[in-house]
Design a protein that fits this description.
It is a single chain. Helix content is about 60%, strand content about 10%. It is mainly α and about 290 residues long. It has two domains: about 5-115, 2-Layer Sandwich (Potassium Channel Kv1.1, Chain A); about 185-285, no CATH class. The protein starts with a helix and ends with a strand.
């Protein structure tokens, strides 16, 4: 029989040692070959090998730079090689070309080294900014960023429905994320939450589900409010269909109180956005979507 406590301790020690070793490398500028320049002249020195392993964006950048260097050698001979040895910095990247959230980018770089969740300082308010970064940088799935984002949102949704909705408004306003990225996070959350209340998952009989038992159903509604405010284009029928697929064909939604009760305060347009995605329904009635 395995000693679970001993295994957990060994695993913790391994992760702690990895993080410590990664931090040592992160702060060691002697072996860096990449400089990321931030607005105001600040910069970070990093290792392209780490960035390349973490991100498709940096992998492509490195490939292009290597091709460019090979072309220089082909055209100019060994003089190109001598020029490149004058500095240890081979790659230079402007942070503003990647994001307008420089602090989150710095945290993401650190996380790429340590794989330590605390280094991200992930919150509901910055969750969708990280979603945008994950998409733009084509981050390696091994970093588990999407998993941690969905877990963060799920935990906060269960803790306080109204506070969660209020923070989501800030998150969408801050990120102005597109519909496809919103759905990429919303669908698995809605799917998992709706299944939690399914006592008979194998049954073919329709089951009823109170909208307020699945607080993440407010995600697409709040996103629509942001999209309308900022003039983002979206296909309401497509979003509606994607949500329906996430909930399941065998589920009937119903309301026990007005939809805008998701908030602790009135929100202009919330009920209209709710009706757009879930159908118009009176309290106590079924929703057909």
């Amino acid at each position: 029989m395995h000693d679970t406590g001993a295994c957990s301790l060994v695993l913790w020690k391994q992760r702690h040692q990895h993080a410590a070793s990664a931090l040592e490398r992160f702060f060691d500028r002697r072996t860096t070959d990449t400089k990321v320049v931030f607005t105001g002249g600040r910069h970070m020195h990093l290792h392209m090998g780490v960035l390349r392993a973490a991100s498709g964006y940096f992998a492509s950048l490195a490939d292009f730079k290597e091709w460019q260097h090979a072309e220089e050698i082909r055209k100019h001979g060994s003089t190109a090689t001598r020029r490149s040895r004058n500095t240890s910095i081979t790659y230079e990247v402007k942070a503003e070309d990647i994001t307008d959230e420089p602090d989150l980018l710095r945290r993401l770089f650190l996380y790429s080294y340590t794989h330590r969740l605390a280094d991200l300082d992930l919150t509901v308010e910055n969750a969708f900014c990280f979603v945008k970064l994950d998409d733009f940088l084509a981050l390696n799935e091994g970093l588990d960023l999407k998993f941690f984002i969905t877990k963060c949102l799920s935990d906060h949704a269960k803790a306080s429905r109204k506070e969660f909705a209020s923070k989501l408004v800030d998150s969408f306003e801050r990120s102005e994320v597109q519909a496809d990225l919103m759905l990429a996070i919303s669908k698995p959350l809605i799917f998992l939450e709706s299944k939690e209340f399914d006592a008979y998952p194998e049954s073919l009989e329709p089951r009823c589900l109170d909208v307020f038992e699945v607080p993440t159903l407010c995600l697409p509604v709040l996103w629509v409010l942001m999209a309308n405010k900022h003039g983002l284009k979206y296909d309401a029928l497509q979003i509606r269909m994607e949500i329906r697929n996430a909930i399941g064909e065998n589920v009937k939604l119903y309301l026990t109180e007005p939809a805008s009760k998701w908030f602790g305060y009135p929100s202009e347009g919330f009920n209209e956005a709710f009706d757009l995605l879930y159908g118009s329904v009176e309290v106590g009635g079924d929703i057909i979507i």
